[in-house]
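User: what does the whole thing look like in 3D?
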Amino acid sequence: MDKIQKIVLIGAGNLATQLGLALHEHGVIIMQVYSRTMSSANLLAEKVQAEAIVDLKEITPQADLYIFSVKDDALLQVLQQCSLFDKVLVHTAGSIDMNILQDFSSNYGVFYPLQTFSKSRKVDFKAIPFCIEASSDKCRQQLKQLARLLSSDVRDVDSMQRQSIHLAAVFVCNFVNYMYNVGFDLMQQHDLNFDLLKPLIMETAQKVMHTNPWEAQTGPAVRYDEQVMNKHLDFLDKQKQLKELYSFVSKQIFNKHQNK
Amino acid sequence: MDKIQKIVLIGAGNLATQLGLALHEHGVIIMQVYSRTMSSANLLAEKVQAEAIVDLKEITPQADLYIFSVKDDALLQVLQQCSLFDKVLVHTAGSIDMNILQDFSSNYGVFYPLQTFSKSRKVDFKAIPFCIEASSDKCRQQLKQLARLLSSDVRDVDSMQRQSIHLAAVFVCNFVNYMYNVGFDLMQQHDLNFDLLKPLIMETAQKVMHTNPWEAQTGPAVRYDEQVMNKHLDFLDKQKQLKELYSFVSKQIFNKHQNK
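Assistant: Here's the predicted 3D structure for the full assembly of 520 residues, as C-alpha cells:
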C-alpha cells in the first residue's frame, strides 16, 4: 500500500490551517496551498513550506493526496475546475456526502477531524476523532494511516453518520459558544468580568465527561422555578431576542425534565 | 472579630451538600442539617457528623452562622418559621436580594458560590468565586474569612450584580448543558457514542478561557451557510422543537456576526 507522503491543500481556512500545520509537523510534505487570495494562501504556505497558488489550474499532479477544505457551497465549483482524475481526493466537510467526489476521481474519500478550529489557536490532534470514509479499501487504509500519524482515535464513519455527528457538533460547540457569548455580553453590560464565569464553564463541560447531560441538568428551568425565571426575564428588560431565547430554552428544558 | 466555627445548614440539596462537605473538611463544625425529609437530612448529616432535623423549631441557637440553602420560592416561608433574631443568617441564592433576610435578624448576608453542584460530584472549591454581601462590615469580614477557608477567589458582590451573574450563569451553564443533552440525544438516535463529542466539548470550553466568545464563534450560522443549515433542518425531520431551536439560535448567531 502506498503511503501518503505528499499533499496539496485546497483551502486555507481554520481547518486547513490546523490540519496543514499538524501534518507538516509530522513530516508530511505539503506541496501546495491553494486559496482564493494570495495573502491567505501565503500565510499558510509559508508556515508549512509549501508553494502558494490562487489558480486551480496550477495544482501539481505530483501529490499523493488532495485535501479539499473549502466552504461547503464552494466545493463543487472548485472540484469542477480541477483535473485530477486518477488522484486521491478527499474533503473535510461534516455535512457533505462522500459521493460529491465521484465524478472527479476514481479514488476518493472523507477526512473529517471532529473539532472546532481557529487559525491562531493550536489544537492537540492526539485526542481528536478522525472520521474516515473512502471509495475503496485501499484508499481507506491510506487515509487511516495518515490520520493515525496525528490522532489515536481514527474511525470508519459513513456519510449518514457523519451528518448526525456534524449536527450534534453544531449544538455542543457552535450553539454552546453562542451561550458563552450571551454570558459575556450580560457580564459586560453590568461591568462584571467574564473571568468570573470561567470556573463554571469548565465545570459544566467537565461534568458531562462523566455524567449523562440529562442527569447533569441544573437550574431554574429544570425545577420550573417561575419566581427566578420571571426575575431573569424582567432583568433582560428590552433585550427582546435574549428574552425569547431564555423562554424558549427554559421551556424545552422543563419539558425534558418534567417527569424527573 | 468572632470567627465562624459552628454552622447550621438549612437545606440539604446540591449546593448545601457540597458546601457542607467542604466546610466540614476544613474543620468547621456543622451542628445540624435541616431538610423537609429525614432521609435527605440524614444523608448529608451523616457525612458531616451533624444532627439531622426536619422541624425548624429544633434549630439550635448555639451556632455562629445559619446558612439557608433552600429553593428560592421556599426561602421566605422557611425563614418565617425560624426564630434566630440575633444570629448571623445568610442565603446562597443567585437571584434573591439580600434584604429578604432583614426582617429575621440584624446580622445577615449572602454567601453565593458561583458554580454548578450535584449531590454526588465533588467539586474543587479552590477556584470557585465566592460572592459575598453583608448587612455590616463585621458580618462581611466574618463571611469572607469563612469563604477564604474554601476558595482563593472571594469577592464583594451586591444583589444587583449577583442577579446579573446568576442570569449569565443560566446561559453558560444550564443552557449549555441543555445543548450537550441535545447532542447526546442526536448521537443516541443514530447509534453513535456521545464520547465522540467530548474532545469537541472540552475544546469549545477551553477556547473561551483565552479567546473572547465572539471571536471564537464558528459553524454554519456565522457564515450563513444555508446549504448546511437546510441539510441539518431536513435531518432533524419531525423533531419540531429541535428544528425551532436550531433555526432560532442560528439566526441569532448570524445577526450577531453579519458585520464580522
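In plain terms: The mean pLDDT of chain A is 95. The radius of gyration of chain A is 22 Å.
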